[in-house]
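TASK: fixed-backbone design
INPUT:
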């Protein structure tokens, strides 16, 4: 948690962005994906807890085909590797 705390302290010190800078970043990144472009997955983490995550439909797996790591919202373990997953029936 020390790194996360350090990042939060650094962000708190940063000057606010101007409207022009914010607009330039939005233009660079493009529009956010539409909600229909996401799939919901149920994943089991290495710590044993189960979470629901959203990933873009373009990804075949919620772990990106590699050992993707998540932060467990129940026990706080970070990182906790996804060890099993299944798509949810409604998809979105």
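OUTPUT:
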């Amino acid at each position: 948690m020390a790194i996360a705390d350090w990042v939060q302290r650094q962000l708190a010190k940063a000057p606010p962005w101007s409207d022009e800078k914010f607009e330039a970043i939005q233009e660079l990144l493009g529009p956010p994906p539409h909600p229909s472009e996401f799939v919901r997955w149920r994943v089991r983490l290495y710590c044993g807890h189960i979470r629901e995550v959203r990933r873009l439909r373009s990804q075949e797996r919620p772990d990106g085909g590699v050992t993707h790591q998540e932060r467990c919202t129940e026990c706080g373990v970070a990182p906790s590797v996804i060890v099993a997953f299944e798509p949810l029936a409604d998809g979105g």
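COMMENT: The mean pLDDT is 86.
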